[in-house]
Every structure is written in structure tokens, then in C-alpha cells.
Amino acid sequence: MAMTKSEKIWMNGQFVPWDDAKVHVLSHVLHYGSSVFEGIRCYATKQGPAIFRLGEHIERLAYSSKIYRMKVPFSSEQIERACLDTVAVNGLQECYIRPLVYRGYAHVGVNPVGTPIDVMVAAYPWGKYLGDDALTKGVSVKIGTWARMAPNTLPAMAKAGGNYLNSQLLKLEAVEDGYAEAIALDTNGYISEGSGENLFVVMKGELVTPPMHNSILAGITRDTVLRLARELGYSVREMVMPRELLYVADEVFFTGTAVEVTPVTAVDRLPVGNGEVGPVTRAIQNAFFGIVKGEVPDRHGWLTRVPRSVAASAKA
Ligand code: PPE
After folding, report:
1. What's the topology of domain 134-277?
2. Tell me: the pLDDT tens digits for 64-114?
């Protein structure tokens, strides 16, 4: 599963060719997971490429950096600009954008004081997260045997590289056992989220999703779906959920930048509802894709159009 390359990657304010975007093997981040990052999608719209909720993603990157006491040497405005420029310079219409803030090369040793804070932004094509048919047919998932991190261990609000060791354990287990994805419980045994996505349950016409205190990442797609569902007239609630609610739910779906809105049609080999993609999931998918693809008016101001040319200061 090689990734699709683009031409240039933004590193600390300069564009460098894709194959030259490298770090030293003694960089702090490689040894201790000291990074925070974002995943953002840019969609092809009739008015050209547009980035979905760019401001909110870069705001969360700032929160993640602050939690880990990383002083980012670029402003959020500069990083937003870097995202727009990286899409433009690579001539991309539809892509995934990956900004990363990391502790670079100075010394090895847990104490990060004195390591440089490096920033990079890459943009490249990325298709469907859980397979080509996932959005239309849904996916089969299991409850993972690894719990999400307890709240006083690793902060879930920070989208930090180290958190994804837990995600990798969940994902590897799921894939080895023949599932598309794992859903994790928190350390109290309540439903938390997937390895890289938030979770919604539809129960008797109402949408429910775990609150922040179940060790979830505060997903931007989750927030989007909460708002769109309310606008569609659904009752929506954050609720602490026991595992078995997934077995009796009418519908279940994942939300996330990479996964978008993906139906879950089986949990632990039990069909969700009748095992088909449900009507509420479809309604949410339609509302979501209508907005991100610019097919309906951007009434929330969620799209940032990518300018055709790159700001002169960013050229290298
Ligand atoms: N929970 C986790 C653990 C998570 O990683 C993501 C995004 C979400 C929830 C949804 O958040 P949001 O994208 O703001 O709606 N996961 C990103 C990384 C996936 C990857 O494999 O890398 C993503 O979807 O971009």
C-alpha cells in the first residue's frame, strides 16, 4: 500500500522535493513519539479545491502543541497559509493534508528541553480509509482488547503521535482478526472511539456519541455531524455508552477526516440492525458530502478555497 507522492513538502518554511524531506535518525520524535499533528481534507468543488474546516484543524494543532509545551515557531496563520500553499504548489484538486509539529534533532534523552520544534506540511492524494466499498457497503468491526489511554496517562485532547501506538495495537488486532477496524473501550469499560475515528450510534431515531470524558479525540467531523444532524431535525445527544448498546443499536457509523462518514454494519460479527446501511447514516452522509464538496451553499463558512498561486514568501 505505497502512498501516492506529490512533488513538494513544506518544511520549516521552505518547499523541498518529496524525496528530500528527511529528518535525522537521532531526532527526539523518533525515539519518544514527541509530535502533534493534524489530518485535513481538501475537496474538489466547482469553484476549485477547498479545504474543509482548516481554521479548526490548525486551532487543534495549537492546542495539542500547548499541551505538550511545544513552542511552535510559526503562527497559526502561517501554518494555514502553508497548508493552502502546499496544495497549490503540488497542483492538487483533492487531497489529504498532514501538518506535523515535532521535536527535532539536538540530543537524545527523554528531557525534551532544548530540542528544536520543527514543522512540516505535506499534501497528497488519499482515497477511502477503510476500503473502496466502505462508504457504500459499511464495515465489520470488533471491540478491541486494548483500552484507550486513561485520562491521567496520555491526554486524549492532544492529537499526539504517541497516542497512535495505542491506535496501532487496536488496528493490528482488528486486521489480524479479519475486521476493518477496532472500536476501543475506555479504562472504565465504556465505548470510546475507533483507532482513528469517532463513533455515532443511532437508537430509535436519535443520534448518540460518547462525550469527551470517554478518552476520545474531539473530532472535527464529529462536531460537523452533531451540527448537521441537528439541522436535519434529529435529536442528538452525547451519552456514556456500554458496549452492548452497539449490539442492539439500529445504526452505527464512524466519523473522521480520513474515514469521512462510514457505516458500521457489524460489531463482533453481530449485524447492526438488519446488517444494511441505515437511513439515518445515509442522510448524514448526504448532508456531509453536500457540504464538503461544495454542492450546497457553505452556510457555516467551513470551506477555504485554495488560491491558484502560491504566496511569494512561500516559494523556494
Ligand atoms: N479519533 C481519533 C483517534 C482520530 O485519530 C481521528 C482522526 C478522529 C477521532 C476524528 O477526528 P477528525 O478528523 O477531527 O474528525 N484521525 C486522523 C488520522 C487517521 C490516520 O490514519 O492517520 C484522520 O482522520 O485524519
Report:
1. D-amino Acid Aminotransferase; Chain A, domain 2 (3.20.10)
2. 999 999 999 999 999 999 999 999 999 999 999 999 999 999 999 999 999
Q: How many CA atoms lie within 13 A of 270 on its CB side?
A: 15
**C-alpha–C-alpha distance, residues 263 and 258, integer Å:** 14
List where CATH 3.30.470.10 sits in the chain: 8-127+299-315
- pTM above the 0.90 mark? yes
Mean pLDDT calculated for residue range 132-139: 96
CA angle 169, 38, 150 (to 5 degrees): 45
The percentage of the chain sitting over the pLDDT mark of 70, rounded to a whole number, equals 98
In the CATH hierarchy, which fold is given to the domain comprising 8-127+299-315?
Answer: D-amino Acid Aminotransferase; Chain A, domain 1 (3.30.470)
Which alpha helices (H) appear in the chain, and where do they start and end? 28-32, 54-67, 76-89, 134-137, 163-176, 220-231, 245-248, 279-292
Secondary structure class of 116 (helix, strand, coil)? coil
Q: Which atom of ligand 1 is nearest to the CA of 220?
A: 14
Q: Which residues' Cβ are closer than 6 Å to ligand 1?
A: 39, 167, 193, 196-198, 217, 219-222, 255-258
285/198 Cα distance (integer angstroms): 15
Contact partners, residue 109, CB within 8 Å, separation at least 6: none
**Separation between Cα atoms, residue 103 and residue 110, nearest integer Å:** 11
**CA–centroid distance, residue 197 to ligand 1 (Å):** 5
Examine the residue annotation and report whether 159 is marked as an active-site residue of this protein: yes
